[in-house]
Design brief:
Helix content is 32%, strand content 12%. The protein has 214 residues and is α+β, with helices and mostly antiparallel strands. The chain folds into two domains: 180 residues, Dipeptide-binding Protein, Domain 3 (Dipeptide-binding Protein, domain 3, Roll), CATH 3.10.105; 26 residues, no CATH class. The strands form four sheets. It has a two-stranded antiparallel sheet. A two-stranded parallel sheet has the order 2-3. A hairpin with a 4-residue loop joins strand 6 and strand 7. Helix 5 runs antiparallel to helix 6.
Length: 214
């Protein structure tokens, strides 16, 4: 397994990232169905519906859907999977009128900084006229918009720490998203491929350093 449980929204490998647990009383990667049911009962939200997409033409997506349904039921939720296809899933996910309340996505950093994560996910200007962009939580907080703009205008050598602080602040203050995990990549290469290393930010080979022997 190359996957590890999620904590921060910003993934490992980003400079000055300091790991935190957004649920400090819960061990990442573990489940507690009884605690989940109790929390829902305390909140008056027993059988709260969780509506999410899955691709019915993808056997892996179907298996994942079945596992999610089983886990949500055990935790006291009412899982309501929404069947779609691989071709249509991205369009439906970005459509604010799609009848789902949990949207999942993932990507690798375009650059090793929080600037690859927080503006796309949380800046209100990323809400498109005809869709959600990548702001799947429909998150719209003027204070966060200003903080993003201030960080982008700060000296480069200060930005990574500021993004890290924002990561924790958004989770503790608003909790609009949650990280389920970080996927790794296992890559094979031939014996004449030299100096192949995996870039821990981009999750791909460091192409500029690779060379081939005759």
């Amino acid at each position: 397994m190359t996957r590890q449980p999620g904590t921060n929204m910003m993934p490992p490998g980003i400079p000055e990232r300091t790991e935190y647990n957004p649920l400090p009383d819960h061990e990442p990667g573990t489940t507690n169905a009884d605690k989940s049911k109790q929390l829902l009962q305390d909140a008056g939200k027993t059988n709260y519906p969780i509506q999410f997409l899955y691709a019915q033409d993808d056997p892996v997506s179907v298996d994942v859907k079945d596992a999610i349904v089983k886990g949500l039921k055990a935790g006291g939720f009412d899982p309501q999977p929404y069947a779609t296809t691989i071709a249509d899933s991205s369009t439906l996910r970005a459509d604010p009128d799609t009848k789902i309340n949990v949207r999942s996505a993932g990507w690798c950093s375009d650059w090793p900084t929080g600037g690859s994560w927080f503006p796309p996910l949380f800046e209100s200007t990323n809400l498109k006229a005809e869709g959600l962009g990548s702001n799947y939580a429909v998150f719209n907080e003027p204070d966060v918009d200003k903080q993003i703009q201030d960080i982008e205008a700060a000296p480069l050598d200060q930005q990574n720490k500021l993004w890290n602080d924002m990561d924790k602040n958004i989770a503790e203050t608003y909790f609009p998203t949650f990280s389920t995990g970080y996927d790794g990549v296992a890559m094979m290469h031939g014996s004449k491929i030299n100096n192949m290393k995996d870039d821990n930010v981009f999750a791909m080979p460091t192409w500029k350093d690779i060379w081939v022997s005759q």
